Amino acid sequence: MEKQKSGLTMKRTLQILHPLHIATPSLRALLTALVLLVLLMSLPGCSASVVYVIEVDDMITAGTDMQISRGIDHAASIGAEAVLIELDTPGGLVTSMDGIVSSIENSPVPVVVFVPQGNRAFSAGAFILLSGHIAAMAEGTATGAATPIEITATGTTAAENKTINAYAARIRGITEKRDRSVETAEKFVTEGLSLTADEALDHGVIDLIATDRRDLLNQIDGRTVNVSGSSITLHTKEAVFVEDKPSLVVLIVDIISNPQIAFVLFLIGMYGIIYGLASPGTYVPEMVGAISMILALYGMGMFSVSTFGSILIVAAMVLFIAEALTPTFGILTLGGVVCLIIGALMFPQEPLLPEDWVTGFRRTVFVVAILSAGIVVLGLGLVLKARVRKPTTGQEELIGMIVRAETDIGPDNAGAVKVHGETWRATAEEPVLSGETAVITDVNGLTLILEKT
Q1: Is 42 an annotated catalytic residue?
Q2: Which of 69, 96, 103, 123 is catalytic?
Q3: Is 228 a known active-site residue?
Q4: Which CATH class is domain 50-246?
């Protein structure tokens, strides 16, 4: 139907052009060629396909897991032909690797995993490479060395047999699903086997060798892959690349989920809390310690991203309340603003939210954080003014007032003075004669203590 419409449009256009009185035949031919070119470009199927590129160039962390998961969802939403993951990693966290493999296995879009020239995919990276619908490497690259290790007091050693067997079974399951060499892949885990690109191709653990991403797309063009039970034929020869840009949330998670960073944050948190309890009053060590401990616990995988965001938001509210109750001249407010911003950015984890909503949400977060800080600072100012203001009610207001003696007043004989039209009983260490002025220095029950001015 579309072809018939296009044919009719072209025919009508030529019919319109034919009777035009154009100065020369060559000019008429040029105009006709331009119109035909525009029509051909508008025909269905002429638009280039898109390959969504995700680059991984460091340890596999929770941030990497989040980046790939969100990247696959975004690629599916824009109708990408495939997702291309370019790997360069020495390994990483097991939980993050499992999450990435799961995202690839459940992806609605074909996922191509590629190790470009000069890179490597060891340990957790080997699992990710073999999980791709298409696995490719460039000359001079290597993969494997996926034996689980344990950290001991004297260094590192191979993990227990039950752990090695568990991950051997995991990598067997991955390679069986992709119809690759199970025996060789298993040796990655059980023997720590490492292979070059040529060796990996000869042993059947990868599908092809490519020089770069363009060469890779040319080679996989026309291949059929099984994606979630459906056969999909790739059309990637003329595809354009759309590169993934990690969000601020991904960058934050990537940093704090690094085991070294998480450990340092844990130490800062522990020492901050200890020092704060030992030397109360400054509030800075406790605040820094609490925030660092929350970040460290998330980096160690103690809770999910949404839970992490919720805890930070609650911590922000606690810090704001603490600032109002025990003013610290903005120290706790600053900590609360930091917690509120990071927590709010972590909180929405819905992959189908529109991009303009996410942008608007971030703006709202910063505005709310600034307003919260302003409200707390304003409340702090009112509290400080109330603390330094002289009392205007009760007996405390009498102290410091100048009064006139109605009778003679001495240490042994009480006299009388008038305050606000009321007569009060008064005594003084030094005699105050009737008609003289004195200042009220204290109140003892209903008796005023005077000092002669």
Answers
A1: no
A2: 123
A3: no
A4: alpha beta
